[in-house]
Amino acid sequence: MGGHRSDKGSLNTIEKLTIATNSNSVYFGNLSYSRHTSNPVGNDNYAVANGGNTYSRILDYVSFNTPGNAKKFGTSPIGLRYTASFSGN
Question: Average pLDDT in the 75-83 region?
């Protein structure tokens, strides 16, 4: 989710990779804005991306059920950049 390329700067693309098969990633959708240094957290059904290189407060929500763009999920109380994310039961 997102990333950085020296020739393009921050990216807003979401790519999907199926680990069970030997394959390349495929385009899935876009984040609400370009970011890198984000640490998404989620489970088999969804992910929420926070932070990014611009100290963003925007939280993006992505559902893995169908390809598509992320939707704004909410905002954090402060701008986040280098974050750590954890999930579990």
Answer: 73
Query: At 86, which amino acid appears?
Result: F
Domain containing 67: what range? 3-80
- CB count within 10 Å of CB 76 equals 13
Residue 58 domain-assigned? Answer: yes
Query: The whole model's pTM is what?
Result: 0.72
Does residue 85 sit within a domain?
no
Residue 69 has pLDDT above 90, yes or no: yes
Q: What gap in Å lies between CA 5 and CA 19, rounded to an integer? A: 24
Phi, psi angle pair for 31, to nearest 5°: -75, 170
Place of tokens 């701008």: 79
Type of residue found at 83: T
User: Which residue, 28, 37, 24, 41, is CA-closest to 80?
Assistant: 37
Q: Encoding tokens for residue 40?
A: 């998404």
